[in-house]
Fold this protein.
Amino acid sequence: MTRLRVYDDTKALFHLPDGVIYLDGNSLGALPLGVAERVSRVITAEWGNELIRAWNTAGWYAQPRHVGDRIARLIGAEAGSVMVGDTLSLKVYQALAAALDMNSSRKVVLSDTGNFPTDLYMAEGLIATLGRGHQLRLVAPEEVEAALSEEIAVLYITEVDYRTGRRHDMAKLTAKAHALGIVTVWDLAHSAGALPVDLAGCGVDFAAGCTYKYINAGPGAPAFLYVAPRHADNARAALSGWMGHAKPFAFELGYAAAGGVERMRVGTPPVLAMAALEASLDIWDRVDIKEVRARSLALGDLLIAEVERRCPSLKLVTPRAHERRGSQVSFAFEGGYAAVQAVIARGLIGDFRAPDIMRFGITPLYIGENEIVRAAEIIEDVIAGEVWQRPEYQVVNAVT
Amino acid sequence: MTRLRVYDDTKALFHLPDGVIYLDGNSLGALPLGVAERVSRVITAEWGNELIRAWNTAGWYAQPRHVGDRIARLIGAEAGSVMVGDTLSLKVYQALAAALDMNSSRKVVLSDTGNFPTDLYMAEGLIATLGRGHQLRLVAPEEVEAALSEEIAVLYITEVDYRTGRRHDMAKLTAKAHALGIVTVWDLAHSAGALPVDLAGCGVDFAAGCTYKYINAGPGAPAFLYVAPRHADNARAALSGWMGHAKPFAFELGYAAAGGVERMRVGTPPVLAMAALEASLDIWDRVDIKEVRARSLALGDLLIAEVERRCPSLKLVTPRAHERRGSQVSFAFEGGYAAVQAVIARGLIGDFRAPDIMRFGITPLYIGENEIVRAAEIIEDVIAGEVWQRPEYQVVNAVT
């Protein structure tokens, strides 16, 4: 398998519309050219011709595990430790349920106010269902380390903050958590495909992530769940569906969990979405995530320098230190919502996150220096020219 | 919108491989011809060109509700009462969690041994998570009515038995359940698209179903959840993801459920799979489910008569009475596993369900009398000719 050079070889493997600079691949990755053909083949040749037989003949049944192994390589996970399916909300739920079960004498889930809200909402729902007096404790991101104590059952955080791009120190926090008897659940939504992750090296217990952001597998693409091999045969599957049964096709009346991470499967896997994910991984299999990271940091530095030089009213909220940031650059600006609408109207797609964050994702597979400089020019036009104050950019859309 | 005649107009709208008689549409429906183009358009024109903007411009965000309304018509549900997403395992879990919450002073979930195992497994998992002493009580299907009592919290059953095709009387059981203060959860896996369902008329509380069987939306297509409008603003969302939040894009730290069935959304919807479902519904929008049902019963009668005449060793396990059966015909046969392998090798695709059931699904949109008679001939060849006893048909595959 020939190695692909990041950007130089990979940009041509994506469809990007003319006249658009896309700095929102941290929300929905761009379309790999191989996706349409792959999905079409699965529809026509597998579903159409093989019909039900394709569960065996086309390998649909084993696909969530095989695709999991391809993702494992990107996140430093052991082979056989990653299962694909469902959505990230459901995967963090499964992880948290198993983690709380492992540490049942403690009642506090520690998270931070920079976690993505769905993680917090799912935890609230789980805590209510458990009805055993658990508490979801939120602290500021910079206070997480100090808040670790022997009272905490589970450390439940997202490595990279979806708004600011601030990155937690996974190795350090996991080690301190373990020293205090805390089980760890890491959300990799803004890590997988963005930067090297070393789950095995850090000794992480559980992790989950999505594939529609940096991995470029398409809107609503399936999520993944990592369970450390040392836990996989014992972790309780709270969402105990038939695909995670030890013998799904024996149709027994009683549940018996499959061995390993297989038990974290729930229902029938989304075969068409999985095909798109496989096509996106065809690119990831051939790039070096360390090269992606080096380019991401250089491009991020360039964007920061260009925007700060041109727009002093934008306040950088992403850490400057390389080791403390993910693969996005965010600025706080009071008129942020309107400014994002205005830059989008000029062909620069970024996004807005409440209350005042203008967010720009760096995806080196298809974004290079020219795009970054052009993005800074557009931001300058909108901010310095006060374009953002025009009435048409104040209208709030349903979804941003 | 011109009405389509079942089979006469609809058969040409499906891809069916040459030389195959497909009586397994109750497991995975055949491919509607419109799917490949629709999915391809969503990939290229929406994801590819619109990128993140498509959540608004292509209507992705509102799609689970709009598609739910198209399914509502097939199952006698009120507009705005059906939400699409996730898998059937997860949707019955959400329904059962909400139902138990509504009836929290009672602790017994009543189901039957004919329920599909994943429903039972998910209930086991929920009961363990709840940890409040709930009990899953299983009775034989014919004993369900007598087992209803004021001790039961939730009646949790599948209308049509996946093995035998036996159908419960939804109106009668729901009425008796309600008279005893029991909340009802109906699984429509083998009902939706197979026969007319009248959720509103029966006063059902919760229902869920899948779309990859009779609805023909493809492998791993999304499921749906019905919540009676009288409950929708109060039902607890146990899987409280951000898409079911009252204001998902406010990114608040605390959960607040959306009004109505919207709260039963969990994570990001599977847009590519939803496109396939929409293409399959383009056919369903134009057929009369009552005509589908009339044809299904006639074809089922024909298959029963032809097989019984040719193969006296096969014992019919599907009820003969029309009102007591779904849209499949099943026979018990000691060598059932091998016999199914042998008929498949001769071009008749049916399936096997443990311990001894040969199962043939009737899908009148693309199956007619000729296919039924030809199927009976193949079954006769295999059974009367003792072809099923050949060694090559005894080998057990991973998935059947």
